[in-house]
Design goal:
This protein has 263 residues and is an alpha/beta fold. It contains eight helices and eight strands, in the order βαβαβααβαβαββαβα. The radius of gyration is 17 Å and the shape is globular.
Length: 263
C-alpha cells in the first residue's frame, strides 16, 4: 500500500471537485441564478465545476440519448463519475460480476473519454468477505477506473486494503456516512483518491481548510483526487465545492482541455 505522503513522483496530481448530482431546483438562487431553467442546470453547473458524481445510474442505465444529452451540455474536459447499478452492488452484492458488470459498462462507455471513476458502493449490511472481493476485483476491466466504498466496519482491514491495492482500486472515504473508512486510508490504495464529503453540518471555511490540507498532500504525492460534496438542500455545498476547488488549484494542475487518463 502506498502512502499519500509519497513525493517521489515527479508531477503533482490533479484535483477534480464537484457535487453528487446537479438537477436541484432548490439550489436557486444560491448556486443557480433564479432565471436558469432546469433544462440548463447541467450547462450552468459545468461552467463552474468540472466533474459530477451521477447517482442516477444506481437505478437507471444511461441510454444513448441520455449520454448524448449529458455530453452536449458539458465541455470536452468535463468528467462524469457514475455510481454503479444497484444490480451489481445491492441485488447481487458483488456476486456474478461477469454477468452484471458488462451491461452496466456498455452504457457507461457511451460517455467515451468523459467517463471518470465508477463508484462501487456496497450496502451497510454487507460484511467483509475477502474471497468474494477478490473474485469481483478480478473481473474489473483495465480500461475503466473504479473506486470502492464499503459501509461496514469489518472491511477496514489490512487484507482488504491489500486486495484493493493489488488491483489499483482506491478505497473511498465517505465523511458523514455511518461507517466511513479511517482518514489514513485515503490514497492508501489505488492510483487515485476518491472522497465523498457528506457531513450533515456542511462545509464552512474550517472544514474546507482541513480538507484542502489532506488532499493537497495526495496531490503532492502525484495522484489525482476526485472529491464530491453531498447534494444539500440549498446549494451551499455547490459553493463549498467551488471553494475547495479554488483552494486546491495551487496544488494541482487545473484541467484545461485535457481529459484525465487514469492508469
Amino acid at each position: 500500500m502506498r502512502s499519500s505522503a509519497n513525493t517521489s513522483l515527479k508531477a503533482p496530481g490533479r484535483a477534480f471537485v464537484g457535487t453528487s448530482g446537479w438537477a436541484y431546483a432548490s439550489w436557486k438562487p444560491k448556486f443557480y441564478p433564479a432565471d436558469v431553467r432546469p433544462s440548463a442546470f447541467l450547462t450552468h453547473y459545468a461552467k463552474r465545476l468540472q466533474t459530477v458524481e451521477v447517482n442516477y445510474t444506481f437505478n437507471h442505465l444511461p441510454t444513448e440519448q441520455t449520454a448524448a444529452k449529458w455530453l452536449a451540455h458539458t465541455p470536452d474536459d468535463f468528467i462524469f463519475a457514475l455510481k454503479a447499478s444497484q444490480r451489481i452492488t445491492h441485488f447481487d452484492r458483488l456476486r456474478n460480476p461477469a454477468e452484471t458488470l458488462p451491461r452496466f459498462l456498455d452504457s457507461a462507455r457511451l460517455l467515451g473519454r468523459r467517463l471518470g471513476p465508477i463508484l462501487i458502493q456496497t450496502p451497510p449490511s454487507f460484511q467483509r468477505d475477502d474471497d468474494l472481493l477478490a473474485g469481483f476485483l478480478g473481473e474489473l476491466p483495465p480500461d475503466v477506473p473504479f473506486a470502492v466504498e464499503f459501509r461496514h466496519q469489518s472491511w477496514y482491514a489490512r487484507e482488504t486494503l491489500e486486495l484493493l491495492d493489488l488491483r489499483g482500486v482506491p478505497l473511498v472515504h465517505a465523511e458523514g456516512e455511518r461507517a466511513p473508512s479511517p482518514l489514513d486510508t485515503i490514497a492508501a490504495t489505488g492510483t487515485f483518491a476518491y472522497v465523498r464529503l457528506r457531513a450533515a453540518a456542511g462545509y464552512g471555511d474550517a472544514a474546507i481548510a482541513a480538507w484542502t490540507k489532506r488532499l493537497a498532500a495526495v496531490l503532492a504525492g502525484g495522484r489525482d483526487v476526485y472529491a464530491y460534496l453531498r447534494h444539500d438542500d440549498d446549494g451551499a455545498n455547490g459553493l463549498a465545492a467551488l471553494a475547495l476547488r479554488e483552494a486546491l488549484s495551487g496544488s494541482s494542475a487545473s484541467p484545461s482541455g485535457e481529459v484525465p487518463r487514469i492508469s
